[in-house]
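Section 5: illustrative case.
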C-alpha cells in the first residue's frame, strides 16, 4: 500500500488550502471529505451573505470575483469548486474518516468506505459545523426543532421561536419575519449580541422596538411541546403557541473525534486542542490542525480569512522536517 505524505481530513476551504500547498510542494496527498465539496458552506442558509469581503476568502492566490464586496453563499460554492478544479485537487467526497491510529512513524486512517490509508502526516481540518450546541431541554428532539436554518419561505405564516441573538439567529429572525412568520426571539442576555454585523444591527433593533419581532431578553426556553413552548422570563414563566423552533445556539467541533485521536484539549471550558501556533503541529508528532477547529469552543476565534494561513505554516514545517530527516 502507498504511504501518502499527507492525508487531509476535511474538504472545507482550509482543507482545500492545505491541498493546494501540498500540490504546489509536489507532495503526495489525499483530501477526505465526509460530505460534498465545502460541505459546511453548502449547508449554510441558502441566501446567506458572508461578513468577509471576497478577497479575504481567497485561497491559493486565485482571485474571488463577486458581484458585491461581500459574496453570497452560492458565489462561494462556485469559487471553491473552481479552485478545486483549477488545481486538480485530489479529494474523495462522501468518505468520512472514522479512526486514525499511529504505529511507529506511520498513521493508518480508516474511513466509512471501508478503506484504509497510510500516511506520514495527517492534517485535521474538520471545522465545527457538524455538532450543534444543544439546549438539553424537554422536547428538543421534536422534528419542529431545527439547529440549522436554510430558507425563510418554509416558515411563511408560522409561529416561529428563534433562540439566540448571534448573526445566524438575527438573520433567521429578520428573514422569516419578512416572509410572514410570527417571530419571537428568546435571548439569554439582556441585548442582541454585539457581534451582529454592524449593517444588520439597526434593522433588528428597530423591528424589536416597533414590536414587529417580539423579543424576550434575560430569558430561556425551558421546554418544547408539539404546539407550544415554555419560556422562563424575568416576569415569570410563560407559554406561547408555536409551530417551529430555530435553536441557532452555535456549533462545536467534534471533540469526541479529537479525543479518540489522543489530542490534548485545554482543561477550561474552551477545550482548545493543544497545538504549536507556528507549525500547527499537535501533541502528536506529525499530526496537524488547520482552520476553525483550532479554536475549540471559541468558534469566534478563527475564520477562513485568518486561518487560511495554516496551510502554508503546516506544509512549510513538513518540508523543513523532510529536509532534515
Ligand atoms: C453561517 C456562517 C457564516 C460564516 N461567515 C464567515 C465569513 O464571512 N468569513 C469567514 O472568514 N468565515 C466565516 N465563517 C466561519 C468559516 O467560514 C467557516 O467556519 C469555514 O467553513 C471554516 O473552514 P474550515 O475548512 O476550517 O471548516 P469547514 O468549512 O467546516 O470544513 C470542515 C469540513 O470537514 C468535513 N469533515 C468533518 N469531519 C470529517 C470527518 N471525520 N471525515 C471527513 N470529513 C470531515 C466537514 O464535512 C466539512 O466539509 C462563517 C461560519 C458560519 C457558520
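Designed sequence:
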Amino acid at each position: 500500500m502507498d504511504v501518502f505524505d499527507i492525508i487531509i481530513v476535511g474538504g472545507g476551504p482550509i482543507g482545500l488550502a492545505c491541498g493546494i500547498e501540498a500540490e504546489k510542494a509536489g507532495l503526495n496527498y489525499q483530501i477526505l471529505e465526509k460530505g460534498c465539496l465545502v460541505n459546511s458552506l453548502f449547508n449554510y442558509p441558502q441566501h446567506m451573505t458572508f461578513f468577509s469581503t471576497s478577497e479575504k476568502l481567497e485561497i491559493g492566490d486565485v482571485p474571488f470575483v463577486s458581484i458585491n464586496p461581500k459574496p453570497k453563499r452560492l458565489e462561494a460554492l462556485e469559487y471553491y469548486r473552481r479552485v478545486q478544479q483549477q488545481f486538480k485537487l485530489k479529494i474523495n467526497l462522501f468518505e468520512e474518516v472514522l479512526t486514525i491510529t499511529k504505529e511507529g512513524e506511520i498513521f493508518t486512517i480508516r474511513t466509512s468506505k471501508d478503506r484504509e490509508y497510510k500516511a506520514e502526516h495527517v492534517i485535521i481540518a474538520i471545522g465545527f459545523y457538524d455538532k450543534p450546541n444543544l439546549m438539553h431541554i424537554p422536547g428538543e428532539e421534536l422534528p419542529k426543532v431545527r439547529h440549522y436554518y436554510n430558507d425563510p419561505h418554509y416558515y411563511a405564516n408560522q409561529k416561529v421561536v428563534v433562540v439566540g441573538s448571534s448573526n445566524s439567529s438575527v438573520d433567521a429572525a429578520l428573514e422569516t419575519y419578512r416572509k410572514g412568520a410570527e417571530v419571537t426571539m428568546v435571548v439569554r442576555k439582556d441585548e442582541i449580541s454585539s457581534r451582529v454585523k454592524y449593517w444588520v444591527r439597526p434593522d433588528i433593533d428597530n423591528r424589536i422596538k416597533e414590536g414587529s419581532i417580539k423579543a424576550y431578553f434575560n430569558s430561556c426556553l425551558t421546554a418544547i411541546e408539539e404546539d407550544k413552548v415554555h419560556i422562563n422570563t424575568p416576569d415569570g414563566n410563560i407559554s406561547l403557541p408555536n409551530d417551529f423552533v430555530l435553536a441557532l445556539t452555535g456549533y462545536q467541533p467534534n471533540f469526541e473525534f479529537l479525543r479518540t485521536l489522543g489530542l490534548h484539549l485545554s482543561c477550561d471550558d474552551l477545550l482548545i486542542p493543544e497545538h504549536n501556533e507556528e507549525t500547527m503541529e499537535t501533541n502528536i508528532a506529525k499530526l496537524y490542525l488547520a482552520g476553525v477547529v483550532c479554536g475549540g469552543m471559541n468558534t469566534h476565534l478563527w475564520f477562513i480569512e485568518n486561518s487560511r494561513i495554516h496551510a502554508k505554516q503546516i506544509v512549510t514545517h513538513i518540508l523543513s522536517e523532510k529536509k532534515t530527516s
